[in-house]
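Homework help board

Subject: predicted structure for assignment chain

Our instructor gave us this sequence and asked us to write out the predicted structure in token form, then describe one feature. I got the tokens but I'm not sure how to describe them. Can anyone check?
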Amino acid sequence: MTASTQPIPSGFRAPDGMRIYAVGDIHGRADLLQEKLAAIEAHHAAHPGVDALRVFVGDYIDRGADSCGVVEMLIDLGRRERCVFLRGNHEAYVLDFPHNPKIMTAWRTLGGIETLASYGIAASPEPDPAESLELANAFERSLPESHRVFYRDLLLSYEAGGLYFVHAGVRPGIPLAAQSVADRTWIRHEFLNHEGLFEKLIIHGHTPATEPEIRPNRINIDTRAFASGRLTCIWLEGGNFGFV
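My token output:
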């Protein structure tokens, strides 16, 4: 399709008649997301003739300045285009925090303070239990219902042809159909160090890299957007792939 087109590793293929655009971890960078969505639209317009599916591999929130804006943008996109939104490990904190304020101790180290700020909730750098309870109640009141539904309905994985999209990865030796919630959202070393093929090619994020990692059994598209300013999007069509 372009000079940068490459064969999908190990002979895996996307479904016929479909081009899949998969976007890596966004982490509150609404500015980068807006640019990437425009680039996807331009790419698809320049190469028509197939249906487009947009897949987002999770970690929409935390660390960056506008988690709320990212979610609002994705909700709007999902109303207009065919999209799949996967759950990252960071989204688990949003779902749990209103009912379990104690997790603020861990969430603040992962960018939870920035996420609360994007929803108009100011917090001290190290909230104590009393403040954490107040923050949880304020977040519950401030969270738009459309955002609550978005977080609640996120998928854990998505399969298309010979491709398997997931946030963190999968546990070797376990069938894809039997992968746990914890592994799909949190696994690292056991997955990353595995050299054998899986049932499908795994497209994932979760573990930041300076460049997309292309392996015979997986492709990592998390390029640390919140700090690097580089949000990665891969397209896959037939037996080929490239980057937008």
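Reply (TA_rk): Your tokens look well-formed. For the description, you could write something like this. The chain is about 35% helix and 20% strand. That's the kind of observation they're looking for.
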